Amino acid sequence: MISMDTTELNLDFNNTQIAFAHKPDSELKATTLLFKLMNKPRLVEWGSTLSLFALKLHFPFTKWIIKKSIFTQFCGGTTLLETQSTVDHLQRHRVLTVLDYGAEGQSEEPDLDQALQEFLRAIEFAGSNSSIPVVSTKVTALASDEVLERVGRRTDLSTADQAAFERVQDRLDQMCRKAAEIDVKIFVDAEESWMQETIDRMVEEMMEKYNREKVVVYNTFQMYRTDRLDYLKSSYADALAKGYMLGAKLVRGAYMEKERERAAERGYPSPIYPDKQATDHAYDEAVRFCVDHYDTMASCNASHNAASNLLQARLIVERGIHRNHPHLNFCQLQGMSDNITFNLADAGFNVAKYVVYGPVQKVIHYLIRRAEENTSVTGDLSRELALLQKEKLRRGI
Ligand SMILES: Cc1cc2nc3c(=O)[nH]c(=O)nc-3n(C[C@H](O)[C@H](O)[C@H](O)COP(=O)(O)OP(=O)(O)OC[C@H]3O[C@@H](n4cnc5c(N)ncnc54)[C@H](O)[C@@H]3O)c2cc1C
C-alpha cells in the first residue's frame, strides 16, 4: 500500500496551467475547436471516410486541409526535417521524443525495404539529437501480416515464406545493430495476438544480442492479455538467466474488439481480460514489477491512464529512486494527455511523447484512430476536451 500525499510528490495531473503552458492562447483555442469537432461521432465517421476517399482520388487541397488540422495536432511532420521543430518545442519543456515513422499495413517487399531505410534514417537522426533517445518500430511495417501469422502458427512454411521471414529478421537486426552502435533505443510495438507470438521471439533474440551492457531493445507487453503478467515475469527471469537486461514497454493494448471477435468466430477463449478492472489490475501489477526490478531491467509506462502514471511516480519517490532514473520512463502520444506529460516533466520524471511522422497518406489511418479515440459515444466531453476547456476558463479566453 502506498501512502504519500501529492504535495510531497509535487505532481497534479489536474494542473492545466502546467499542462498547456506550451500552448499560446491562439493555439489553445484552435486545439479546443478541433477536439470539439472530434467529440462528434457522426462527423468523425463521415470525415474519416471522406478523407480516405479524397486522398485516394488525389482531390486537390485534401492533404493541405488534413495537414492544417488533425495532422498538426497528432503528428510531428511529414519528414524528419519537418519534425525537428516539434522535437525542439518538446525539449524546451523537458519532454523527450520517441520518433515513430507512421508506416503501417504494407506487404510488398519494396515498401518493406523502403520502411527499413526510413527507420534507419530515423535512428541516425535520433543519434544526433540528445532529446530523441528512442525510435519506435512496428514489425508489421517490416513484414507482411500473413507471413508473421504463418510463422507464429509453426505450420510447414513454404520456401518463399521462409525466405521472406529471414528478410524480416535481417531488417529488424539492421535496425537494432545501428541503434546499439549510436546509443539509440528501439521500442518494438505490440500487435494482434496471432502475430505477436512471432514478434516476441524476434524481439527476445534482439534483446539477447544487443541488451548485454545496456538496454537497447524493448518489447511491448499488452496488459489486457490474460497471459502477459506471467510473460513479463518469465521474460525478466529469462533475461537474467541468459545474461542480458529486459526492456519492457507497458501498454494496455489497442486491439480488444478485434481480438474478441476473432476468438468468438473461431471458437477459442478470448486472450483479453473480461473487464477493464482486470486489465487495470494487471497493468498496475506490471508497473510495480518493473519498479521493483528497476536496477536489472528498464521499462516505459506507455499510457494515458492518470492512475497508472501516478502509481509509478509514487513508487519511484517512495522508494527514494532518482525521479529521472534512465530505467524508469513514461510516454504518451503527441497531441494527447498533455496534463500527464507536462506535469510529469515539470516534476522531474523522464517522460516522452511518441511523435509520429510521415507523409499524410501514410499516417492517415493513425490519424483516424486518434479521432475515433476522442469522440464521445455518450455525448459527454472527451477527457482531452474537458481539460482544454478548463484551461481556457482559467486563462479567461
Ligand atoms: C506511447 C504509447 C505507445 C503505445 N504502443 C502500443 C503498442 O505498441 N501496441 C498496442 O497494442 N497498443 C499501444 N498503445 C495503445 C494502448 O495499448 C492503449 O490502447 C491506449 O493507450 C489506451 O490505454 P491507456 O492505458 O492509455 O488508458 P485507459 O483509457 O485507462 O485504458 C483503455 C484500455 O483499457 C483496455 N480496456 C478497455 N475496456 C476494457 C474491457 N472491457 N476489458 C478489458 N480491457 C479493457 C483496452 O486496452 C483499452 O485500450 C500505445 C499507447 C501509448 C500511449
Structure description:
The chain has 397 residues and is α/β, with parallel strands linked by helices. The protein has a single domain (79-357), classed as TIM Barrel, CATH 3.20.20.220. Helices cover 57% and strands 12% of the residues. Strands 2-3-4-5-6-7-8-9 form an eight-stranded parallel barrel, surrounded by eight helices. Helix 10 (193-210) links the parallel strand 4 (185-188) and strand 5 (217-222). It starts with 5 loop residues before the first helix and ends with a helix. 44% of the residues are buried. The structure holds flavin-adenine dinucleotide. The site of flavin-adenine dinucleotide has 24 residues, from strand 5, helix 13 and strand 8.
Question: Which secondary structure elements does this structure contain, and how are they paired or packed?
Answer:
Blueprint: H1 6-9, H2 16-19, H3 25-38, H4 41-56, H5 62-74, E1 75-77, H6 80-92, E2 96-101, H7 109-127, E3 134-137, H8 145-153, H9 159-181, E4 185-188, H10 193-210, E5 217-222, H11 228-242, E6 246-251, H12 256-266, H13 276-292, E7 297-302, H14 306-318, E8 328-333, H15 338-346, E9 350-357, H16 360-373, H17 383-395
Helix pairs in contact: 3-17, 4-16, 5-16, 7-9, 8-9, 8-10, 11-13, 13-14
This protein binds flavin-adenine dinucleotide.
